[in-house]
Design brief:
The chain is α/β, with parallel strands linked by helices. Helices cover about 25% and strands about 25% of the residues. It is found in: Cytoplasm.
C-alpha cells in the first residue's frame, strides 16, 4: 500500500515506483534493482532517502572498510549493497515477506568474490532481538524507515538493543509530519542525535545518532 493515495496522472514523477527495475551508478558499480510495488508495496521500490544515504556513504565521511554494518528495513537492499561494495561486512534485514525479493537483488549486484561479506536476514523490529547481540555492529543504517508511527516504539527498541557505546546510527529520512519530529525527540532520550547532511533538492535529512554514554566518532 502507498503512504498516501495519489493519482498517477497528476503526479507522473511517482510512476517510476511502478517500474519493474531501477538503475544506479554508485560505488563504482552499475546497480540494477528489481522493484515490485504490486506485490510488496513500499518495501519493494527505491525511495529518495536510500539514494541520498548511498551518496553520503560514497563521500567517504564514514570509513566502511572492514566495518560490521546492519541495514534495517532494507526494502530493495540498495543501501546495504552499496555499503558492501564500499568494503563493509553487511547484514541486510527486513521482514520475512521481503526476503526472497531482497536476496535476489543482493545476488544480482554483489560480485561473486564479495558475496560472503553480505548476509540477508529476517528482522522484525522488536522481535527476537536476541538473535542480534548488542555490540555486534559498528554501524546501523536506515533509509526512510521513520514513517509509520505505530512502528516507532519497536524501531526505538531495536536501535537501543543493537547499539553499544561505539555503535553509530545513520538515519536518512524526509520529515513529513509532526510525528516524525516526535520520533526524533524520543530518539534523543537515549541517543545523542545531530543532522550531518541535508539534500535540499530531495528534502532528505541524514541524522547521526550515538548512545548518550559515548562521544566516539566512527
Amino acid at each position: 500500500m502507498a503512504l498516501v493515495p495519489y493519482d498517477e496522472n497528476l503526479l507522473p514523477a511517482l510512476s517510476k515506483l511502478h517500474q519493474t527495475s531501477a538503475e544506479f551508478n554508485l560505488a563504482n558499480h552499475r546497480i540494477r534493482l528489481s522493484q515490485d510495488w504490486n506485490r510488496l508495496g513500499v518495501a519493494a521500490v527505491v525511495w529518495d532517502a536510500a539514494v541520498v544515504l548511498c551518496m553520503f556513504l560514497e563521500m567517504g565521511t564514514v570509513d566502511l572498510k572492514g566495518k560490521r554494518v546492519i541495514e534495517l528495513g532494507a526494502g530493495t537492499g540498495l543501501v546495504g549493497i552499496v555499503a558492501a561494495l564500499l568494503g563493509a561486512s553487511v547484514t541486510i534485514t527486513d521482514r520475512e515477506a521481503a526476503l526472497e525479493f531482497l536476496t535476489a537483488n543482493v545476488r544480482e549486484n554483489i560480485p561473486p568474490g564479495q558475496q560472503g561479506a553480505v548476509q540477508v536476514s529476517e528482522l522484525t523490529w522488536g522481535e527476537n532481538l536476541h538473535l542480534y547481540p548488542t555490540g555486534s555492529f559498528d554501524l546501523i543504517l536506515g533509509a526512510d524507515i521513520v514513517y509509520l508511527e505505530e512502528t516507532f516504539p519497536a524501531l526505538l527498541q531495536t536501535l537501543e538493543h543493537l547499539s553499544a557505546e561505539n555503535t553509530v546510527v545513520l538515519l536518512s529520512c524526509r520529515i513529513r509530519y509532526e510525528r516524525d519530529e516526535r520520533f526524533l525527540m524520543e530518539l534523543r532520550r537515549s541517543f545523542s542525535v545531530r543532522e550531518v547532511y541535508y539534500d535540499s533538492q530531495r528534502d532528505i535529512h541524514i541524522y547521526r545518532a550515538v548512545k548518550n554514554t559515548s562521544n566516539t566518532e566512527l
